[in-house]
Q: What sequence folds into this?
C-alpha cells in the first residue's frame, strides 16, 4: 500500500496528497479492521488452543511433578534399598570380621622370637604361701681373714692395693724382723678381695691386722624375723631373694641358719641365707627382700604372673594356635611371688604366652584402634 501511495504522489503532485492520504487512511483502517478481525479470530483460536495448551502444560507439569516426585521418591527408595542392602552386607560380613578379629592378632614365629615372646604349655603346679622378710647383704663370716705379721718389724714393701683380688699364698707385703733382721713375706691365707689395707712402707708392725681379705664368691643375706612369724620359719626353707622396687636381681636359696640371738635394736630374730655371688651381683650393704615359702598348695593350672594382662577390666592370657594369638579371659585363684593359679579359662595342654604378653596386648589394642578409625 505504501508503494502505491508513493506513485500517486509523484503523478498528481501536491494536490493528490490529500486524496492519497484519505485513501491511505481508509485502506489502512480497512486493513487494520481486517487485521483486527483476523487477530481477533486468531486470538480466539489461540485462546482455545492456548487454553488447551495451558491445560496441557498444567497437565504435563502436574504429571511431570508427579513423575519427578515419583522418580525422586523412587530414587530415594532405591538408595534406601541400596543402603539397606549395604548395611545388611556389612552386618553379614563386616560383623563376622569384627567378631573374628576382635581380641586376636597374627604374628609370624620369627617376629615373635625377636620380640621376646615365649610360649608354654598350660600345666599344673604348686602355689606357695609366703612370708616376706627384709634384710641386707653382708660378708660371709666364714670366708674372711685378718692378716697380721708373724714378727714385729719394719714394713719394707707393700705388694697389693685396696680392692685388689688375690689368691691364696700370694705375697701381700715384706717385713724385716727386729729380732733376726731377716725379711719375711706376709701372704694371703685365703683367696678373696682386699677390703682393708692398714700399713705402708716404713711402718712398724704390731698385733693389729695389716690387711683384711674377704671371699665374696658367696655372701649372706641377713634377714630379720618378727616374733609373730618365728613359728612358721625354719632352717632349710626355700627363700626367693630379690632387690627392692623393680626387681633387677633375683636368686633362690635356702635358710642356712637361724641365729640363737636376737637383734638388740629391732628385737627381731636373724635368718641367714647364703647366696652364690660369682658375678658380684650381690654387694655387701645392699637392702634386699626375701619371700620364705612356708607352705604349698597344688593347683591344676599354674602360670607365671608375667602371663597375666588386664584388658577390658578382665584378667586375660593369650592362647596361641597356628601363629594366631587370642585373648582369653581367665578366673584367677591363689598366687605367690612368681606364679598364679588359673581356675577357669585355660585348659591343660594349651599353648599360651608365658613371657612377653604385654607385646601381644599392645598389638591387639593397636589393631582395634585402627579398625575403629
A:
Amino acid at each position: 500500500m505504501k508503494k502505491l501511495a508513493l506513485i500517486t504522489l509523484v503523478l498528481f503532485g501536491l494536490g493528490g496528497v490529500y486524496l492519497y492520504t484519505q485513501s491511505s487512511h481508509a485502506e489502512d483502517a480497512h486493513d487494520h479492521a481486517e487485521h483486527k478481525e483476523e487477530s481477533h479470530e486468531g486470538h480466539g483460536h489461540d485462546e482455545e488452543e492456548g487454553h488447551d495448551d495451558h491445560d496441557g502444560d498444567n497437565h504435563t507439569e502436574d504429571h511431570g511433578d508427579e513423575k519427578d516426585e515419583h522418580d525422586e521418591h523412587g530414587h530415594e527408595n532405591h538408595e534406601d534399598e541400596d543402603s539397606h542392602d549395604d548395611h545388611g552386607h556389612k552386618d553379614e560380613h563386616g560383623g563376622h570380621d569384627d567378631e573374628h578379629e576382635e581380641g586376636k592378632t597374627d604374628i609370624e614365629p620369627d617376629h615373635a622370637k625377636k620380640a621376646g615372646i615365649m610360649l608354654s604349655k598350660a600345666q599344673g603346679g604348686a602355689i606357695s604361701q609366703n612370708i616376706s622378710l627384709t634384710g641386707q647383704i653382708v660378708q660371709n663370716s666364714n670366708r674372711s681373714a685378718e692378716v697380721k705379721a708373724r714378727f714385729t718389724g719394719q714394713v719394707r714393701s707393700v705388694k697389693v692395693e685396696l680392692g685388689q683380688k688375690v689368691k691364696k699364698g700370694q705375697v701381700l707385703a715384706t717385713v724385716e724382723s727386729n729380732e733376726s733382721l731377716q725379711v719375711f713375706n706376709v701372704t694371703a691365707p685365703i683367696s678373696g678381695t682386699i677390703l682393708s689395707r692398714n700399713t705402708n712402707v716404713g711402718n712398724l708392725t704390731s698385733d693389729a691386722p695389716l690387711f683384711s681379705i674377704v671371699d665374696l664368691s658367696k655372701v649372706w643375706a641377713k634377714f630379720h624375723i618378727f616374733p609373730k612369724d618365728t613359728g612358721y620359719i625354719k632352717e632349710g626353707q626355700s627363700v626367693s631373694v630379690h632387690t627392692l622396687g623393680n626387681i633387677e636381681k633375683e636368686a633362690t636359696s635356702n635358710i642356712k641358719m637361724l641365729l640363737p640371738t636376737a637383734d638388740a635394736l629391732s628385737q627381731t630374730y636373724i635368718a641367714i641365707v647364703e647366696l652364690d655371688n660369682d658375678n658380684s651381683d650381690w654387694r655387701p650393704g645392699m637392702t634386699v627382700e626375701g619371700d620364705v615359702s612356708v607352705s604349698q598348695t597344688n593347683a591344676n593350672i599354674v602360670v607365671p604372673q608375667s602371663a597375666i594382662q588386664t584388658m577390658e577390666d578382665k584378667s586375660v592370657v593369650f592362647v596361641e594356635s597356628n601363629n594366631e594369638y587370642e585373648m582369653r579371659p581367665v578366673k584367677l585363684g591363689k598366687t605367690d611371688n612368681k606364679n598364679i593359679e588359673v581356675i577357669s579359662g585355660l585348659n591343660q595342654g594349651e599353648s599360651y604366652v608365658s613371657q612377653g604378653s604385654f607385646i601381644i596386648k599392645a598389638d591387639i589394642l593397636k589393631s582395634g584402634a585402627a579398625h575403629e578409625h
Residues 2-99 form one domain. The chain has three domains: 2-99, 105-137+218-372, 143-214. The first helix runs from residue 2 to 12.
